[in-house]
Specification:
single chain; alpha+beta; two-stranded antiparallel sheet; globular
Length: 62
C-alpha cells in the first residue's frame, strides 16, 4: 500500500498523520512505542517496538 502525504504543522514541529485504518491494520495505537530511523536512500522508516516473549521472560524470570 502506498500513500502520498504532506506534513501538517503541529506547534513548532511537523506531524505525519497516519489514517486509523492503517494503524489498525498494523495494530498500532497511541501507546505503541515507535522507532524512527533513516536509510541511505533518505527514507524515513517507522517501526513499532514490540516486546517479545523472550523480553517478557527476562523482565519476569518467575
Amino acid at each position: 500500500m502506498a500513500l502520498v502525504k504532506k506534513l501538517s504543522r503541529h506547534g513548532h514541529s511537523f506531524a505525519l498523520i497516519i489514517e486509523k485504518s492503517i494503524l489498525e491494520l498494523l495494530n498500532i495505537d497511541e501507546t505503541t512505542v515507535l522507532s524512527i530511523t533513516t536509510d541511505k536512500q533518505n527514507r524515513i522508516i517507522v517501526t513499532p517496538i514490540r516486546e517479545t516473549k523472550q523480553d517478557d521472560r527476562q523482565s519476569n524470570p518467575n
